[in-house]
Amino acid sequence: MNCLKVDFWDIHEMANQIASVVQNDPLRDTLVENARQEYIRLSWDGASDKIVNMYNRHAVGVSA
Questions:
Q1: Stated pTM of the model
Q2: Helix%, strand%, coil% for the chain, nearest 5
């Protein structure tokens, strides 16, 4: 988990979630670390590698 989800219109629950993160150090640390890991996993290098691999798989046998 790298975020807390709440209904956009439920401002009281949103305030509760924000307060929870501010008051709960282990929760905050978990959210920060998981977000950092997600950031590392979602890199342009990884995305471009996937696109090149897909292109290469589908371009096999296609001549110009």
A1: 0.62
A2: 70, 0, 30
Element (H, E) at 60: none
> For the chain, how long is the longest CA-to-CA vector?
62
Tokens of 34: 């998981």
Q: What CA–CA distance (Å, rounded) separates 6 from 14?
A: 6
Mean pLDDT of the chain: 89
- Burial of 50-59, coded b for 16+ CB within 10 Å and e otherwise, reads eeeeeeeeee
pLDDT digits (tens, 9 = 90+) for 21-36: 999 999 999 999 999 9
